[in-house]
Every structure is written in structure tokens, then in C-alpha cells.
Amino acid sequence: MEWGAREKLLKPGGDDGYLWHVLLVAAFGHLAPKPFRLIEPNGQRPPYLLGYAHATEEGLHRHVAEFCDPAIASALGVSSLAVKVMPDSFVAGRRLGFELRVRPVVRQTKDGDRNRKREIDVFLQQTRARPDAEKPSRVAVYTDWLAAHLAKGGAALDTMRIIWLRRSAITRRDRERELRVHGEKGGGPDACFGGALTVTDPIAFNALLARGVGRHRAFGFGMLLLKPLPR
């Protein structure tokens, strides 16, 4: 946070995902993990960062040794970096538990202008699209949204629950290098989903893990964390 303040990367009301993005790129360059997620265990233990990267531990440390600013290496605690290799693939039919911080939004034209687009909560978009109909269930809308994303990535959604839901604003620099808060006033949906999925296409699923789910994957969203299901 001290480094981010010095570099003028902190803005009140904005999410810190852009700060982490800049730090990771400054430390690891093109090897920087993406997607990534900051895990904050409610004071039970210190926050820590997880990320997927197309790099070896040796490659990451070499880039840091050759190019990284010492202040950045210190801020990230690069000396305590822990790395493990993910499986080459998960077999079709494998059921897995998951947790996912994601931004469930869709893009739509602004004021009818196709050259101007904005992001909107997919729940609000569907609610406004049928004002005279019964209000849809937020859980059902988010479940359909996630199921569609997973289906494109070689997985079928079995169950889903909302672990938490809040609003946050995306902060990033504009073309003039000024730090600005983007998105709707008050921020957009910032959700954590949990549940179970089944792998249907191992190659596509591996690509999904590496790419992430939804938008703003470079800023702390979209990292699909896997865990075993209880027997």
C-alpha cells in the first residue's frame, strides 16, 4: 500500500485490483500471473495472493533478479514466492468443487450508440429488459450467466451458491495516465460464487483455468479456484 500511494495508484472508492496488476507486471513482466486473486481470510491469517502463470519458478525468479525494482520485490515479498505445477489436464467427467470471484456483467450500447458501450450487472439488465414481468431471481440469473461461461470453457455447472455479493468500482489509468474509477456510479457487482462443476472438455477446461472467467481478469477477478468435493 505504501508503494501504491507513492506511485499514486490508490483512489478512494476503487478496488485495489489495479494496484496488484501493476505490481505483478512490474515484478514479472510478461510472465505476470493472470488471472489472480487476493485472498483475505477475515483476520484469521494474513492476506495472500494466488495466481495462474505460464512460467516456471526458475523463470519467475530469473526475471525478478534481472529486471525488478528492489522496492517492488520487497512489496510483493518475492523471496517467499511459492510455486506448484498444475495438472496437465482433468479427465472428462471429473467433478470438482470451485470458488470464483467474478464480475457478472454484460456489455451493452450506451444511449443507442454502438460506438459507446457500458457494463451493466446482468441481473439489472434482465430486470430492465422485462419491466412488466415478474422480477427474476438474482441467483437464477447469475447461475445461468456462469453456466454459459463454463460451457464455453469445457465444463458443466452442477450447483452454485452466492458466497458473498457486494459492489466495487474498477480503478485503472486512462489514456492520459490519470487514475480513474470506471463503471456505473457506486460500482458494479463484485461476487464470489461456490459450487460444483463437471469437466466436459479437458483441453477447453485447461484453457479456461489459464484465461479466467468473465471480465477484468487482469484486476483480480475470474480466477477459478478448485477443491475436492466431499465424498
TrEMBL record:
Source organism superkingdom: Bacteria
SUPFAM superfamilies (UniProt xref): CRISPR-associated protein
Gene3D superfamilies xref list: Crispr-associated protein, domain 2
Annotated protein name in UniProt: Type I-E CRISPR-associated protein Cas6/Cse3/CasE
Species per Swiss-Prot/TrEMBL record: Bradyrhizobium centrolobii
Lineage of the organism: Bacteria, Pseudomonadati, Pseudomonadota, Alphaproteobacteria, Hyphomicrobiales
